[in-house]
Write a structure and sequence with these properties.
The complex is a heterodimer of chains A (306) and B (294). With 306 residues, chain A is mainly α. Chain A has two domains: 53 residues; 222 residues, MetI-like fold (Orthogonal Bundle). Helix content of chain A is 76%, strand content 3%. In chain A, β1 and β2 form a beta hairpin. In chain A, α4 runs antiparallel to α9 and α6 packs across α7. The longest helix of chain A is centred in the N-terminal third of the chain and has 40 residues. Chain B is mainly α and 294 residues long. Chain B has one domain: MetI-like (MetI-like fold). The longest helix of chain B is centred in the N-terminal third of the chain and has 34 residues. Chain B is globular. Classes of the chains: A mainly alpha (306), B mainly alpha (294). Chains A and B meet through α2, α4, α5, α6 and α9 of A and α1, α3, α4, α5 and α6 of B.
Amino acid sequence: MDPIKEAMLHRSRSAKLERRGRLLSLACISLIVLVVLAIFIFVASRGLATFFTNKVNLISFLSKSTWAPAVKDAHGVPQVGALPMIVGSFGVTFLSAVVATPFAVGAAIFMTEISPNLGKRILQPVIELLVGIPSVVYGFIGLSVIVPVIRTVFGGTGFGILAGTFVLFVMILPTVTSMTVDALKAVPRHYREASLALGGTRWQTISRVVLRAAMPGILTGIVFGMARAFGEALAVQMVIGNAALLPKDLISPASTLTSVLTSGIGNTVMGSLENNALWSLALLLLLMSLAFNLLIRWIGKKGEMK
Amino acid sequence: MSAKSIDKLMTGMLYLIAGVIVLLLAGLLGYILVQGLPHVSWHFLTSPAKSFEAGGGIGIQLFNSFYLLVLSMLISVPLALGAGIYLAEYAKKNWVTDVVRTAIEILSSLPSVVVGLFGFLVFVLQFKFGFSILSGALALTMFNLPLLTRNVEDSLRQVGFTQREAGLALGLSRWETVVHVVIPEALPGILTGMILGAGRVFGEAAALIYTAGQSAPALNFGDWNPLHIASPLNPFRPAETLAVHIWKINSEGIQPDAAAVSAGASAVLIIAVLAFNLLARWGGNRLYKRMTAG
């Protein structure tokens, strides 16, 4: 056959390579999507078994405060009330966000508006180092420094929501700070110039113009920090005391969804009610992380529309 | 109070906040290093841990941490490269790509304990790998993959479009352009991201307690056959890492010198993570200088 005709009719080596490469990269990305789907399906199938197989009422699961899956009440219904863990998780998350926000926003303002030079040379590396410290190390410091301090100052055991809040505060501080810095940097320079030209002081410019303009970005940063706090497991588990009781105050032992999961799942038999109930907590954790994600998207959209 | 004095006051407050944060880090690092470093010795770094008596080391845990890190990077780096290349070079702007991006975002925001539990369910129980290095490495891969992928994609996007046009104009296919032109240019950024990812993996514990397990059986460091049960290279043995060890001795508290051992181990862990961070910064810059004319 004519060599030119043959070359036209067959795929070249290069085109074959291109097809193979494209398929390879497509396979990688599909695998990631598949893993995400699999996580949801597996955790949901385990977590829903509590309600479908063991016939636990969803409402009582979310609102009862006795967590004793092995014990049945007078009506023969096992007592799985997750309220103590839900309250504990939301408690440490909100409190740590409330404590961390002023520090994070303050540090970000310092880095962008007050002294960019010191910010870049000192605060930036400090924030990056704080991100790098592993969570078990935070837990260990919490256990050996913060818990004893709380014990001597407030009495009690020292374990509890307050200790968890302190540990999480340090852990989410860098996340919120660096996202706030990005948000402040995105505010156009002429906004500041306009305010200064009107005779505003630096603080008036920051508080009434820059912070206002950067608000959606700052809120996104705070929600990111909260998502991280909600899902943090070991550092919290080490300082919160792990008692599945409805917390009465901030310094008595409590528990979170993650702390019950980490300490419980190894001690229960697969497929038993105790185990299924724990998987329901994991499902709750998964759904909350999804909710935080949606919240971030919603804030992003709201902020865009100006 | 006049606007000017409020301005002065708030500026002072901001300096105070910045100072507090710097002191916080100094305090944290100082505490760990002062408490931990006196305990770190050659004996501590190489001898096995003891459960019920004082004087144990972290030798096996340290080896496990590094082995697990290498194994999980071997799995996750090629996957992240492929996925990043797809997103940066091939993905069209349509709803499928949006779904893919959302999936990656969700995976990156999942609590690591959920990833660990999924690994427990699938690798440990379903695939019957048991508590093993392999299960742990796969769980860490899921934990690390979204961030690595995003890093690869961002690094590839930084490369100017003229570079791609030059490759295509020379008659290279799109894939060849990516492999021979775009990736070498983006390599410093990709490498920096990988090293930072390695630091994150090294300190991770929540994803590992139910996948790689919480026990460190004795190893025979003379036997490097991966199929032998006591061999350090065997991927099917349970392997407690350094981070898991710190968590475990603190929550069980049966070791008489738990505080000292965890302080020492924390110091080693922090030094390793700091080394990863410095290496990422320094190595990225240096590689960039060598590969460009700059």
